[in-house]
Protein: Organelle RRM domain-containing protein 2
Organism: Cardamine amara subsp. amara
Amino acid sequence: MAMAMRLPAITRAVTEVANSPVGFRRLFCSNASKFSFLSPQAETQTPARPQADPSTNLFVSGLSKRTTSEGLRTAFAQFGEVADAKVVTDRVSGYSKGFGFVRYATLEDSAKGIAGMDGKFLDGWVIFAEYARPREQSQSYQPQNNMSRPPYSPYGNR
């Protein structure tokens, strides 16, 4: 009976503490200002990746493992003439790596393809479409051939 009488008072006290600016921190933590997880600070904005120049080639990410190049072509063909569609696959399993490329015939079609498919569902997954960035030019490819010289020679260094 005594508990039933105290219940509204306890509920009111908990509600007041929860709605106060510092909440439970002041009650249970003597040095609450030291802990950043108790008082979240303003999130710092990470700089956005620079947008690629408009081109007819689109980079599509977020693809399902079951998405095929033909399925990708069919999905993007409703927004313009698709010249080529390619899902990048794993060499061993043959499944999609989760991204691919779509090449349109014109810039206008590629812009419509991005507007129409960015953030939409394809094979049950949300996909993202953006202009593809050109490949970075690397140094000339030099294959590492470890068999050119044995690690030791019984005849000494020649």
The mean pLDDT is 77. Helices lie at 2-19, 25-28, 69-77, 107-117.
